[in-house]
């Protein structure tokens, strides 16, 4: 399949920056545009004055600029039907339809589909009545896992061994409507113990190819303490996902999901992100997402060889070519730089110096998220400001390179975790913090 000549990445975060960076390095690189992008993205890529808030403007911009492929980053845009709008205009889009995006926009929908398809996952019940949900806690052992059913920006999960805290979160969702319609129902789930992993599959409705497995860190503080976040760092590949486990994920999770979605009349084209817990009974699904993970994408795409654009375009057209890409050697580690008060009370006033110098170093990439240009550096303009990514021959070397790079940064009002990829078979401290959105 001919590679696309012009690609539009929809979104403005570190994930979108990583995708744009990688697609621009294909063997036959396309012109890469971003919408709306960010100041950091705008240093290297042309930004369009269009965003997900007005799909009609975005579709028109794609037609005017003869965009061959649109890659949608944010889950809310997919849940809102952006892929449907683009497809209706005859534009190839990598991302599922609104109906297929329910795998992420409704956790209960995903649970029902997994039960129907025999996919291993945690036992769960769903509630819209606070009293019924509180009473159901007695049917589950502590620690309790409570999830808002819909999209809640990474804040819709509480894992706690304290009954009062579990009840308070139920009340906040169903009584106080903290998450609006997204929290109109809650799931109470069986707690899964083990080691976390993330496996992303590029799907064309029937066929798929797995990307290198990764592990991310959701908790705000070292040793997996603190609240859930959008992600504080990641590494790939994770040694926890052995070839046997990867084969099981393909055969017992991804393939049955695609069959079940096609049977429902909503074939899945896009990224199927499988958030997994690896335990004594094998891999079980903690969550499905329908878009590239963030920050997993930042460590996965540097390890992908070949033509990523051809792979994504083929998937969008239902003509996936697994041979379009391969897996390169080595490993990648991402350390996320966040506002000092993230996630509870980000002040968005910090400053990071030295990022531009890091980008000129071999083996180091800087993917901007919520940054804004400031005199002598970059202002922290949101919770997660940027991701410093290092690639090296092995995980230990990549980790050392990443933290050495972070150590050369200056400024104030930002922080990071110090234990990303610290003893990677080490990822085992994860049990209590899966932060589904």
Strand content: 25-35%
Distance between the termini: 35 Å
Which runs of at least 5 residues are low in confidence (pLDDT < 50)? 425-437
Percent helix: 25-40%
Number of strands: 27
What average pLDDT do the residues reach?
Answer: 93
Assembly state (oligomeric): single chain
- Helix count from the secondary structure assignment: 14
Brief description of this entry?
With 437 residues, this protein is α+β, with helices and mostly antiparallel strands. It has 14 helices and 27 strands.
Report on this structure:
Among the domains are: 6-95, Rossmann fold, CATH 3.40.50; 124-189, Dna Ligase, domain 1. The chain contains 14 helices and 27 strands. Strands 12, 15, 20, 22, 25 and 27 form a 6-stranded antiparallel sheet that branches. A 5-stranded parallel sheet has the order 3-2-1-4-5, with helices on both faces. Strands 6-9-7-8 form a 4-stranded antiparallel sheet, sandwiched between helices. A hairpin with a 3-residue loop joins strand 10 and strand 11. Helix 7 packs across helix 10. The longest helix is centred in the middle third of the chain and has 21 residues, at 243-263. The protein is globular and about 55 Å long. The protein starts with 5 loop residues before the first strand and ends in a 22-residue tail after the last strand.
């Amino acid at each position: 399949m001919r590679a696309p000549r012009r690609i539009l990445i929809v979104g403005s975060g570190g994930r979108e920056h990583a995708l744009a960076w990688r697609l621009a390095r294909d063997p036959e690189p396309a012109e890469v545009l971003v919408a709306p992008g960010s100041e950091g993205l705008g240093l290297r890529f042309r930004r369009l004055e269009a965003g997900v808030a007005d799909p009609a403007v975005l579709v028109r911009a794609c037609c005017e600029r003869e965009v061959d492929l649109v890659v949608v980053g944010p889950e809310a845009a997919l849940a809102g039907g952006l892929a449907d709008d683009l497809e209706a205009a005859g534009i190839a889009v990598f991302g599922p339809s609104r109906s297929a995006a329910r795998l992420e926009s409704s956790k209960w929908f995903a649970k029902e589909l997994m039960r129907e398809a025999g996919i291993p996952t945690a036992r769960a019940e769903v509630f819209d009545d606070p009293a019924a949900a509180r009473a159901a806690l007695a049917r589950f052992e502590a620690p309790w896992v409570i999830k808002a059913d819909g999209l809640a920006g990474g804040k819709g999960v509480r894992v706690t061994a304290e009954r009062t805290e579990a009840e308070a979160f139920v009340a906040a969702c169903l009584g106080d409507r903290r998450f609006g319609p997204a929290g109109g129902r809650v799931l109470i789930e069986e707690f899964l113990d083990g080691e976390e992993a993330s496996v992303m599959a590029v799907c064309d409705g029937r066929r798929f190819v797995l990307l290198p497995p990764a592990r991310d860190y959701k908790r705000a503080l070292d040793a997996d303490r603190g609240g859930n976040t959008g992600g504080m760092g990641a590494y790939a590949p994770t040694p926890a996902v052995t070839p046997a486990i990867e084969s099981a994920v393909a055969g017992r999770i991804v393939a049955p999901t695609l069959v079940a979605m096609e049977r429902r009349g909503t074939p899945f084209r896009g990224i199927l992100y499988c958030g997994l817990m690896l335990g004594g009974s094998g891999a079980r699904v903690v969550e499905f997402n329908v878009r590239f993970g963030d920050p997993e994408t930042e460590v996965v795409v540097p390890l992908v060889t070949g033509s990523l654009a051809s792979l994504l375009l083929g998937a969008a057209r239902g003509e996936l070519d697994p041979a379009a890409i391969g897996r390169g050697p080595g490993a990648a580690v991402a350390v996320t730089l966040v506002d000092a008060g993230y996630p509870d009370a980000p002040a968005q006033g910090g400053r990071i110096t030295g990022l531009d110098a890091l980008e000129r170093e071999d083996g180091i990439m800087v993917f901007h998220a919520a940054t804004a240009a400031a005199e002598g550096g970059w202002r922290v303009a949101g919770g997660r400001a940027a991701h410093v990514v290092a690639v090296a021959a092995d995980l230990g070397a990549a980790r050392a390179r990443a933290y050495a790079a972070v150590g050369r940064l200056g400024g104030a009002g930002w922080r990071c975790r110090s234990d990303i990829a610290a003893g990677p078979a080490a990822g085992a401290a994860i049990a209590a913090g899966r932060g589904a959105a």
